[in-house]
Write a structure and sequence with these properties.
Its cofactor is FMN. Belongs to the NADH:flavin oxidoreductase/NADH oxidase family. InterPro entries: Aldolase_TIM, OxRdtase_FMN_N, Oye-like. The protein is α/β, with parallel strands linked by helices and about 475 residues long. It folds into two domains: about 5-330, Aldolase class I (TIM Barrel), CATH 3.20.20; about 360-435 and about 440-474, no CATH class. Helices cover about 25% and strands about 15% of the residues. Strands 3-14-13-12-11-10-5-4 form an eight-stranded parallel β-sheet. The protein binds flavin mononucleotide. Flavin mononucleotide binds near residues 26 and 56.
Length: about 475
Amino acid sequence: MLDSLWTPTVAGKISLPHRLAMAPLTRSRATPDGVPTELNAEYYAQRASHALIITEGTQPSADGQGYVVTPGIYTDEHIAGWRKVTDAVHQAGGRIVIQLMHVGRISHPDNTPHHRQAVAPSAIKPAGQMFTGSGMQEMPQPRALSTEEIAATVDDFRRAAAAAITAGADGVEIHGANGYLIHQFLFPSTNQRTDRYGGSLDNRIRFAVEVATAVADEIGADRTGIRLSPGNPFQLGDLTEHDTHELYPHLVRALAPLDLAYLHLAHGGDEELLGTLRELWPNTLILNRAGTDIATRAKDIDNGIADVITVGSMALANPDLVERLHPSTAAAQPATPTTPPTPPDPSPRRPRQSPPSGAPAYARQGIDAERPHAYRARVLGCDPGGNVVDHGEHPVGVRASGRVRAAGDLVEQGGRRAAVLRTVTVLHRERPAGSAPSGPGRAPPHPQPRTARATGRRPPSRPDRPWSRKGRGR
Ligand SMILES: Cc1cc2nc3c(=O)[nH]c(=O)nc-3n(C[C@H](O)[C@H](O)[C@H](O)COP(=O)(O)O)c2cc1C
């Protein structure tokens, strides 16, 4: 049932032996100075069998801290502390990226080293209380960052990413979700700025894109991931999203040319938006379908909606989750892992537009099943050791089963069972003279090559994008 989970894949430069990864989980177990300890190393090493460990949110600067005893990654002591963690995970055979989390207004002066007022896009108080050394307290009103301070904050992310690599991490994940600083820039409920970081869609996504660009520039796009929580109704501080169906496609279109290792979505139930973002995102998509069981999450891989899934609470409660589930070891396990109950559906689900998420991969990629020979593809696979193997360029063909081969399909290459077709990049499409253009009932054109990295080409700049569809958002 969970076969698709156990096939190898890649996230940028990082080879993943399977597709069950660990979501970021704040543990508040660092020293008061934000230094990870042996305890953190033991905790992460225990979970090293996950395809990828995404660490707890880690502040890139003193301003970026919101909670007590969370780790930082901006001093030499932080780097030395994280080195213990990354060494322990690597020795246990795992892979680890450090999540860079700047909390913005979700903070309290009692919790930061400098005890100053929190910073945010605008001086808008978040709703709610947070834990401090003297108990629960209201989160106070932050002050608005100046335009110059925004540039300095982007640099903080850049330096923190470099520090994470120095500390031995395989990459970083930029936290752009859940109501923290990057998310606060995206919507007017938290961003009332009148400079080039507020107002229009372009302005509101600017900070997110600048941070991603700076981090990718510093450590390599293939070691950089980003997490977003589009349409998720549970946002800290009561951040409310406004033009969700316009903003997120706009943001993902702007991020796609950066060729980042992955996009990690904390999914809140808007299936239509999820499908749209899947179509727009060319590289590895990691999905956290909160509160659901493993079988439900694995279906997202079968359906091609996700390449990798993450689990939070289950990984917290079951360090050996992978061993419990993996076919080679599950039979020996005494108990099934705890699965948290599915929460009530937080938002009315809109019907997904064509093509549906369950459509075959070729249809979602806009490959016309009647003319598969009109497309060429690059096939990337993994060998049984999890190393990426480039199988070269091939015509997109009809397989013996009658199915059209496309990204996400499993293939056998050279008789090797573990080989998996990760990516088909539509390199070329030609319409025979006189043939009709795609019409109703035909799959829409594929948004863009599935991986710019594989082809060595970058997607075209935004105005020329053939896949931007008017009236898609709402
Ligand atoms: C204790 C706890 C701490 C969390 N800390 C973080 C965090 O630091 N960064 C983040 O992006 N998400 C964080 N999350 C959200 C999780 O990554 C995940 O999205 C959430 O738990 C829902 O997924 P699940 O059902 O797989 O647990 C946290 C969740 C929990 C329960």
